[in-house]
Design brief:
- Helix content is about 35%, strand content about 25%.
- It has about 240 residues and is an alpha+beta fold.
- The strands form three sheets. Strands 4-2-6-7 form a four-stranded antiparallel beta sheet, with no helix packed on it. Strands 1-5-3 form a three-stranded antiparallel beta sheet, with no helix packed on it.
- A hairpin with a 2-residue loop joins strand 8 and strand 9.
- Helix 1 runs antiparallel to helix 3 (about 160-175) and helix 2 crosses helix 3.
Length: about 240
Amino acid sequence: PLTEVQYESISITSLSSRKTTFEVEYSPKSSWPEYKFTVHPKNGTISKGKTVEISISFMARNKVNVSDLIVLNMNEAYRYAVHVRADAEVPVFGVDPYSLPLVALNGVKIPRILDYLRTYLVNHGALRLIGLYQKQPDVMLCYAIRQQLNRQYLISSQSNKETMHCVAHLVRAFFQELPQPLIASLPLSSILINDEKKLIKSLKELPHQSTCLFVWLVDYLSDVITNSEYNHTTIDGLVFFFIFS
């Protein structure tokens, strides 16, 4: 976050024989408190040989990626665009999951990054990839994809099998690196039981946000197992991989 206001300016000198009029157009994609632009003056006239300085101030209260246009209209005939861009790296792993942007799915709110990762895997047919969770991913590629997700919530690496393995393992990494383990509030004995009713009762004791994440994870793992004929993943192997590793 930029705790101090950042300033930039544009100087306009009129060489016309008549007065030059100008007007600044700006339609922010986001509003305070994420970030704020101030433009002054927003309009006016400039006499021949005179110069006007338009100041632009910017401040961000949160780590955000900004890409906005400020358009300068001159004499209602010429338009000049100023591209204002600010890049921030916002970690999506190892942080409070509910400090991240959320999306509502099936009545529960979960971090948008989880929905993005799952959608990416489904759209690229990765759930049918042989050895989806058995094969070790490329460490350097995983790191690169992490950085891409931190910067812009997008994966720009080439969509091949190596990328699919990395994205699948990053789903696991998200849960593995939670500041507070998902089921830490429950004793292991209340989970490792064969009584479905008792298990459901135990899970109801989880905090609401943990329950939402747990429901999402179970639903995702169900999708993986549904494709076990192709990815060669077993229920026991998957549970061990996500819970005990």
